[in-house]
């Protein structure tokens, strides 16, 4: 009799265990489905929030949308800098995810450089100068390119003279085959007042990078270089970011 009772007890215990196991499996499946639905709702809500911020930004700055690549340069150079352009400030305040979505909405997929971006661009410029121009001086880039960053740090609000002096620089860089031609440009501007000197140095370096031919893919990137709409490159701040952009696209992306 005791054996029968023990057997019945064991069977009942096994049935209860199986039932509990099945219940736990079903419960786990229900929880997994619930969490999946929750994740899908969260993902959808997040995407909607990102899309909303993209639309808001692009709509607000549609007349200046060609400056988007410079917005990214502003982020890579110094995200916390109090830029003079409101567009740069607003872009910097957005998350990387939203920034990338804004760029992609305009067909721009520029990879981010996570480390010392300014130092990286200086090295690209310096290496290119050393390779292609037999320069006796390093006036343009010595002391970490101080005349370049002075242009944005000290004179960012000032008007650039890009349109006035770029023709002269282009004539020398593009049409003069003399390997010492960069030296002549440096000597031409070295005695200018500091404000004008900084502006000229940024423009010289911009044209050096823009007319480089090291990158066989550079033609793909030229369409990303403003201005190509209603936007204007007005200040030294804009011109400095233009320099970073062409240096990164034409010398940095292989």
How would you describe what is shown here?
- The chain is mainly α and 254 residues long.
- It contains eleven helices and no strands.
- It has helices spanning 2-60, 68-78, 86-92, 96-105, 117-132, 142-153, 162-175, 181-189, 194-210, 218-222, 236-252.
- Helix 5 (117-132) packs across helix 11 (236-252), helix 6 (142-153) packs across helix 11 (236-252) and helix 7 (162-175) crosses helix 9 (194-210).
- The longest helix is centred in the N-terminal third of the chain and has 59 residues, at 2-60.
- It starts with a helix and ends with a helix.
Oligomeric form:
single chain
Q: Label the structural class.
A: mainly alpha
Q: How helix-rich are the residues, as a percent range?
A: 55-70%
Low-confidence stretches: none
- How big a fraction of the residues is strand? under 5%
Task: Give the helix tally.
Answer: 11
Strand tally, please?
0
User: Could you describe the largest sheet, including whether it forms a barrel?
Assistant: none
Distance between the termini: 86 Å
Gyration radius from CA atoms, angstroms: 30 Å
- What would you call the shape? elongated
Order of helices and strands: HHHHHHHHHHH
The overall pLDDT, averaged over residues, is 83
Which SSEs are present, and which pair or pack?
Layout: H1 2-60, H2 68-78, H3 86-92, H4 96-105, H5 117-132, H6 142-153, H7 162-175, H8 181-189, H9 194-210, H10 218-222, H11 236-252
Helix pairs in contact: 1-4, 2-3, 2-11, 5-11, 6-9, 6-11, 7-9, 9-11
